[in-house]
Amino acid sequence: AVAYMGSKGLTETQFGIQFQSTDRTVRNFRKSGKMRRSTFEAMAKSMGLTIEQLLRGELPSQSDRH
User: Fold this and answer.
1) If DSSP codes are grouped into helix, strand and coil, which group holds residue 54?
2) What is d(CA 2, CA 12) in angstroms, rounded to the nearest whole number?
3) Do 23 and 16 meet the contact criterion of CB atoms below 8 Å apart?
4) How far is CA 57 from its chain centroid?
5) What secondary structure letter does DSSP report for 62?
6) Contact of 26 with 36, CB cutoff 8 Å
């Protein structure tokens, strides 16, 4: 998620808004590595990934973008 934010130039606030969350949720996740499953699913979906792909640390490929 951190690499994704960097590659997209997103702040914690912008990234949180992307999946209907807050910068606080993003900050807490960065510190603890923990978040509610439903929030994690929303984050993965907003990045164009499945939960499994995000858990593996994958990033969305540029070729998948339209």
Assistant:
1) helix
2) 9
3) yes
4) 10
5) G
6) no
Residue 58, C-beta contacts closer than 8 angstroms, at least 6 positions apart: 49
Query: Given CA atoms 29, 33, 35, 37 in this order, what sign does their dihedral have?
Result: positive
> Which amino acid is it at 6?
G
Whole-number pLDDT of residue 62: 61
Cα 62 from Cα 50, distance rounded (Å): 16
Amino acid at the residue 43: M
**Over the stretch 1-48, which tens digit does the pLDDT of each residue have?**
899 999 999 999 999 999 999 999 999 999 999 999 999 999 999 999
Collect all residues with Cβ–Cβ distance below 8 Å to 14 and sequence separation of at least 6: none
The conformational region for residue 59 under phi > 0 = left, psi -120 to 50 = alpha, else beta, is beta
